Amino acid sequence: MAKARTLFPFILITSLFFLWGFAHNLDPILIPHLQKSFTLTTVQATLVDSAVFIAYFLMALPAGFIMKKYGYKAGIITGLLVFALGSYLFIPAANTQQYTFFLIALFIIACGLTILETAANPYASSLGDPESSTQRLNLAQSFNGLAATLAPVIGARVILTKGYTAAQLSTMTEEGRKLALAAEAATVKMPYFILGSVLVLIAVVFAFTRLPAIQTNEGHVASKNIFHAFKHRHLTWSVIAQFFYVGAQVCVFSLFILYAPRAAGISEVKAADYLGLCGLAFLIGRFIGTYLMQYYSSARLLAAYAVINILLCIIAIWGYGMITIYTVVGICFFMSIMFPTIFALGIKDLRGDTEFGSSLIIMSIVGGAVLPRVFGYISDVTGNIQYGYAVPLICFAVVAFFGIKGHRVIVKPENLPVSAIL
Question: C-alpha distances in angstroms, 378 versus 263, 319, 356?
Answer without folding.
Answer: 15, 17, 35
